[in-house]
Amino acid sequence: MPSYQAPIRDMRFVMDEMLDYPAHYARLPSGDDASPDVVSAILEEGARFARDVLLPINQSGDEEGCLLEGGEVKAPNGFKEAYQQYVEGGWPSLAADPAHGGQGLPPSLAMLLSEMICATNLAWGMYPGLSHGAADALRHHGTDEQKATYLTKLVEGVWTGTMCLTEPHCGTDLGLIKTRAVPADGDAYAITGTKIFISAGEHNLAENIVHLVLAKLPGAPEGSKGISLFVVPKFMPDAQGNVGERNGVTCGSLEHKMGIHGNATCVMNFDGATGYLVGPPNKGLACMFTMMNAARLGVGIQGLGLIEASFQNSLSYARDRLQMRGLSGKQAPEKPADPIIVHPDVRRMLLTQKAFAEGGRMLVLYTAQMLDVVEHCEPGEERDHAETLLGLLTPIVKAFLTEVGFESTNEGVQIYGGHGFIKEWGMEQLVRDARITRLYEGTTGIQALDLLGRKVLMSQGESLKVFTKEIHKFCKAEDDNPALKEFVGPLAKLNAEWGELTMGVGMKAMEDREEVGAASVDYLMYSGYVTLAYLFARAAKQASISLEGDEKAFYAAKLNTARFYYQRLLPRTKAHAQMIQAGASSLMAISSEDFGLGFEI
């Protein structure tokens, strides 16, 4: 079975030394509650829960999967008991509004816990995962009655939430949905339709499940402008707010999947189910975006957690596994062969995992600061700034971290060699679980269109300028710092090129809109690599300051990881830049009919 130790020392480096979280929390209206003692307790107890409760049931949950009998789903053995411990520990309410029973702590602390959960049992973590987004959507868009009925239960974790968007005939193009909502008694609606790929759509962990469902009202406009959002509980709440009669929503089947076997991915049938409108009619997609954005950040954290898990186990294996001698001679002469960690290519793979784990953590915690400000600060310049950066970084967090997460888990299998292909080691499960992260909550291509098309080009590049100005100021301030010369020079050039590439795509798109789609994925990956380069430069600055202290080895390793990133991973931007500039012509030149020339379909 794979092992895991929460990387608390690295978390504290990013929080306390690099991003100055103590000062960040002090600026938040509720920041006093996030005292050093509270933060330490959350990290230590979260690490214990993930390691001792979730990790032991991860492989067994993957092997057992979920069982559907008579419309009821049973999660793998141990999952329900783990969820009860999670609720009893108060974890669901960590960052929720105190008005609804929450602890009111900054969202960044919940994101740290989420990394630990994703690293130890991704499938289990998906049961409570969407509940936070469901609660946010109801908090922002629900009526007072809906908040009173559902929010406290969701915050406590007694009930869980889902997001019901996809249908058998449509995925991302939600304008094509067929689920209908017909007015019924009072303010109720009868919801009829089928949704697929619904994570945690049916299970036995909580006493009720609150579905947020996209549907169309009679006479609604065509396309996405005619979508409304409804809250549809599995069991109707009674007058006291407790579980009442069963609603007309059932699990028709469980999906047979490549990974995340421990999570019930359901086909959900709504047969005249009673639901209630959330937000204005025909504005459901805008309301659902509150939940979708939270989910996108959550999926990015899934990528990060899997990178960390793969790295830790790959490192342990590489230190123990003996294979050949080092190219420069015996490195462990007392042994019959050297540990494979002495071999350069194994080190390349390990350092790739290490760099993406540490860089991904910096990206998540940097983004989390923006989320803290947006959630806790009053409207004003600081919140507007944070909201712009959060919008820009969200698709990068989601897509970039899941892309490199899949790469890193694959490298883990490669480090194990043939043993990586064998189930008992647990490395192939990480690959299978990681694969879905590139798909759900919007594929990499969808995130890329959101970044380049909506966030950057639709703002005339202003959202990007907010970030590139920050990078520019950092480079100018450290231009004369000899300790950072190897980082600041390349970063400044890439930062300038980022703007030039954006302008180039924008100019081409004025003539041909296909240019946006042609460039978008490479643009997102380029953006991710440059963003991590900025964060690694900041980490290198802090490490160079602390290099002569008591933890010299820790800071020296941090600097070496930054150097590896700049020398071996950051050059990938050159290929992405060239592909961005290549344009759409070669992609669109072949007709749909001519794609299959040479074989019969």
TrEMBL record:
<comment type="function">
    <text>Involved in the assimilation of dimethylsulphoniopropionate (DMSP), an important compound in the fixation of carbon in marine phytoplankton, by mediating the conversion of 3-(methylthio)propanoyl-CoA (MMPA-CoA) to 3-(methylthio)acryloyl-CoA (MTA-CoA).</text>
</comment>
<dbReference type="Pfam" id="PF02770">
    <property type="entry name" value="Acyl-CoA_dh_M"/>
</dbReference>
<dbReference type="InterPro" id="IPR025878">
    <property type="entry name" value="Acyl-CoA_dh-like_C_dom"/>
</dbReference>
<dbReference type="Pfam" id="PF00441">
    <property type="entry name" value="Acyl-CoA_dh_1"/>
</dbReference>
<dbReference type="InterPro" id="IPR046373">
    <property type="entry name" value="Acyl-CoA_Oxase/DH_mid-dom_sf"/>
</dbReference>
<dbReference type="GO" id="GO:0016627">
    <property type="term" value="F:oxidoreductase activity, acting on the CH-CH group of donors"/>
</dbReference>
<dbReference type="Pfam" id="PF02771">
    <property type="entry name" value="Acyl-CoA_dh_N"/>
</dbReference>
<dbReference type="InterPro" id="IPR036250">
    <property type="entry name" value="AcylCo_DH-like_C"/>
</dbReference>
<dbReference type="InterPro" id="IPR037069">
    <property type="entry name" value="AcylCoA_DH/ox_N_sf"/>
</dbReference>
<feature type="domain" description="Acetyl-CoA dehydrogenase-like C-terminal">
    <location>
        <begin position="467"/>
        <end position="590"/>
    </location>
</feature>
<keyword id="KW-0285">Flavoprotein</keyword>
<feature type="domain" description="Acyl-CoA dehydrogenase/oxidase C-terminal">
    <location>
        <begin position="282"/>
        <end position="450"/>
    </location>
</feature>
<dbReference type="GO" id="GO:0050660">
    <property type="term" value="F:flavin adenine dinucleotide binding"/>
</dbReference>
<feature type="domain" description="Acyl-CoA oxidase/dehydrogenase middle">
    <location>
        <begin position="163"/>
        <end position="271"/>
    </location>
</feature>
<keyword id="KW-0274">FAD</keyword>
<dbReference type="InterPro" id="IPR009100">
    <property type="entry name" value="AcylCoA_DH/oxidase_NM_dom_sf"/>
</dbReference>
<dbReference type="InterPro" id="IPR013786">
    <property type="entry name" value="AcylCoA_DH/ox_N"/>
</dbReference>
<feature type="domain" description="Acyl-CoA dehydrogenase/oxidase N-terminal">
    <location>
        <begin position="45"/>
        <end position="157"/>
    </location>
</feature>
<protein>
    <recommendedName>
        <fullName>3-methylmercaptopropionyl-CoA dehydrogenase</fullName>
        <ecNumber>1.3.99.41</ecNumber>
    </recommendedName>
</protein>
<dbReference type="InterPro" id="IPR009075">
    <property type="entry name" value="AcylCo_DH/oxidase_C"/>
</dbReference>
<dbReference type="InterPro" id="IPR006091">
    <property type="entry name" value="Acyl-CoA_Oxase/DH_mid-dom"/>
</dbReference>
<comment type="similarity">
    <text>Belongs to the acyl-CoA dehydrogenase family.</text>
</comment>
<dbReference type="Pfam" id="PF12806">
    <property type="entry name" value="Acyl-CoA_dh_C"/>
</dbReference>
<keyword id="KW-0560">Oxidoreductase</keyword>
<dbReference type="InterPro" id="IPR052166">
    <property type="entry name" value="Diverse_Acyl-CoA_DH"/>
</dbReference>
